[in-house]
Amino acid sequence: MYDVIVVGTRVAGAPLAMLLARQGYRVLAVDRATFPSDTPSTHYIHQAGLGLLRSWGLLDEVVASGTPPIRHLNFSYTDIVIKGFADVSADGIDAVYCPRRTVLDKILVDAAGNAGAEVINGFTVNELVFDGDQVVGLRGQVGDGAEQEFRAKLVIGADGSNSTVAKAVGAEVYEGSPAACFIYYSYYDGVDWGMQHRTGFGEQQFAAWPTNDGLSLVAVMRKRDRFREFRTDPDAGVQEIVSQIDPELGARLQDTGKRVEQFRPMLYPDNYRRRSFGPGWALVGDAGYHKDPFTGWGITDAFKSAQLLADLVHEGLSGARPMAEVLAEYERERDTQSASTYELTLSISELTLTPYYDSVFRATSYDAEYTKGFFGLIAGIYSPEKYFGEQELADLYEKVDFPMAARHVAKDGVIA
After folding, report:
1. DSSP 8-state code for residue 294
2. 3-state secondary structure of 362
3. pLDDT digits (tens, 9 = 90+) for 209-232
4. Cα–Cα distance, 343 to 75 (Å, whole number)
5. Domains in the chain with CATH codes
6. SS3 state at 415
7. What molecular function does GO assign, one term (predicted)?
8. pLDDT by residue (tens digit) across 292-338?
9. Within 13 Å and on the Cβ side, how many CA atoms surround 164?
10. CA-CA distance, 294 to 280, in Å (whole number)?
């Protein structure tokens, strides 16, 4: 009998299993994959996420893996250009990192095992075990082996957007919207551009950042209705998008860039929040909450949710509070913590800016101090309430002599 079974051991499940095992609980963590192995990802870890890796004692391993530090970011949205970096975070993080998932996930899975969690890779969950409406365990097997049954006080699904656990418990979506775009990405040699996140006219975007093995990830986005056309010649499509948004980088891609791996095409699942707790079960990471990858917050949010859930489950397992109470608090607090990022992501991932966001970002690009705030917002170390505060925006527009008609200080209003 386990205290907790965690289904899925990537960026949400492995840290959760590790944290609970470090508390002395008997934890079983299972995953259909074996490690190291790849999975679709932006790779990007914000300073807030890196701070958690440091607190867990794992950041040094990510750095030692050869993941290059990034200390300058280049953002553009049509003709709005914002360059710079956030201040050093309170815990001393002065860079961001974009490790390959073959690297990051192996570090996390090993950390869970080293903490005392029992880890079974290559394990397929066939079904959950119920006692009435209470989840009490699961059944599954490794490869073609015999089916096994494991029981626990709590089963947690960390198994992604197509979560087996979520389906088995009938976890309903209570907030959501359709995904807007498709993504193609791969790894390139000879692309020494630093970190680029560039959205151009014509509803298209490219991003690039350095990762392990001296390679750079290069990704492009367009609206979903252009997916069929794009997939006929993705190399030409990538070249076209980069060249249209930044002709200089387009020329460099053509002259020196070499794609060294296959493309990863993705039609991302819709944005959603699912009911993430019930009798004997909970969901974490993409199993319970997913948003467009445009802002690159998937890994960092998974880390934050894993830490939050681990802290609250400890209260439930220790008897300090009823488990149903702490799980309900987990869902509420997760939604509160991620609300501003979720709303911002949905607002700008359509590859067009509303007048409000156009005015805020355009004014930001004119002011060095507010630019620092923008990158602090991106890093997760600057308050959204302050960056988007009506008085702060009014002061910014006055400071940069912004046209009165464009001074949007609220999503549904302007300065009169």
Report:
1. G
2. helix
3. 999 999 999 999 999 999 999 999
4. 19
5. 2-43+100-175+270-344 (3.50.50.60), 181-267 (3.30.9.40), 355-406 (no CATH)
6. coil
7. oxidoreductase activity
8. 988 899 999 999 999 999 999 999 999 999 999 999 999 999 999 99
9. 18
10. 34
